[in-house]
Amino acid sequence: MAIIVQKYGGSSVADLDKIRLVAKKVCDAKAAGRDVAVVVSAMGKTTNELIDLAKQLTEAPSRRELDMLLTTGERITSALLSIAIHAEGFQAVSLTGSQCGIITNDRHANARIIEVRPIRVEDELSRGNIVIVAGFQGMSYKREITTLGRGGTDTTAVALAAALGAESCEIYSDVDGVYSADPNIIADARPLPVISYEEMQEMAVAGAKVLQADAIEFAKRSKIAIYARSSFAPGRETVVRRDAPTEGTGVRAVVSENGVASIALLGRTATDRVADILSALEHTHTPVKELRMQHLAGPVAWARASFVVSTATLPDWEIIQDKIREIGGESVEIAEDLTAVSLIGVGINRDTRNVTRAIRAMRDLGAPILGLSTSGFRISLVTNNAFGNQVLGKLHALFVSTQKQPPPLEAHVFEE
Prior knowledge:
It is a single chain. The protein is of the alpha/beta class. It has helices at 16-31, 46-57, 63-87, 119-126, 152-164, 197-205, 213-222, 270-283, 317-328, 353-365, 388-401; strands at 3-8, 35-40, 92-95, 102-104, 113-116, 130-134, 137-140, 145-147, 168-173, 194-196, 226-230, 237-241, 253-267, 289-296, 302-310, 332-344, 371-375, 378-384. It has an eight-stranded mixed beta sheet, sandwiched between helices. Strand 4 and strand 5 (113-116) form a beta hairpin. The longest helix is centred in the first third of the chain and has 25 residues, at 63-87. Helix 10 (353-365) crosses helix 11 (388-401). It folds into two domains: 3-245, Acetylglutamate kinase-like (Carbamate kinase); 254-401, VC0802-like.
């Protein structure tokens, strides 16, 4: 029997009425003759509320204890959904991440899945049960409970789908797919019926909250198509898959990420000090992006090193920042309260026209460019938080809204 994996985000299971609706949707899939595994997030804002509780006790709670605390949210949802499915007359069983065989590394608060052993899930499916999995969590090889970072429920779902050899992975949330920008900020953001793994992964790395980068990596390796849909407004969807068609301009989306900090070192010892800082950040399991180093020629050898940290997901950022300053001394500069705005698309940097237009657009706004980096699919510009939404709107209008709308694509006809 074909297996499907469905994931429901926090807004989809925010209260008992919504949990009942999800239960009916899941039972319909089971009644259609498929084995169903469901991965769920914590209800509504539960995770944020739990973090707030911990921070009322200390500004920098232990990451290990936070993992123990936060994983209770998904366990509550999975048990309630299982109960609701039983009330619909179907058999279901709820499982934690560790019970599902999700094995991670030992990085608390931002663990990566290294293996999925779905034996328990397969056994329950073979008994005719619908399996409800608590997302966002796993167990390290040290038998510690871990969480997978922001959007980790997506990663749970896709990794489980890959391990089970599922027919598809359906990601349900409060938005009906992926858009060219956050529709809550940009009113004329365009829906993207189909998008490539690479573009979606760059969007996730750049701050898009629809899907997590690790989830896309699992899907890409296993060649699983991801269907991003609205939980309660069927119709539109986005399919994330390989070889997705591209538009002529190369720019598919504009994404922003708030809560970014830039760390720079300058001086004769910058190279040595940045190595010490990176070692300390690795010890505290702090992810680093956009690392750059440059030797400055002259009578005295100087060097410049810089990198970016996403602080919004770091509960102990103040402690980490103090450690950076301790190691870097006077040579380190930390700029906080920044926003990174990124253009995403295949072939976006085939020449310099796109980056030139973006720089000029920011100049016209009077928005300072505090950092700039590019990749094969991305142009990222860093500015102050105060200019973030203005830059997002300006770049979306310039690169997406004013471009000719491509003909609609029938996303569902594509198969992996």
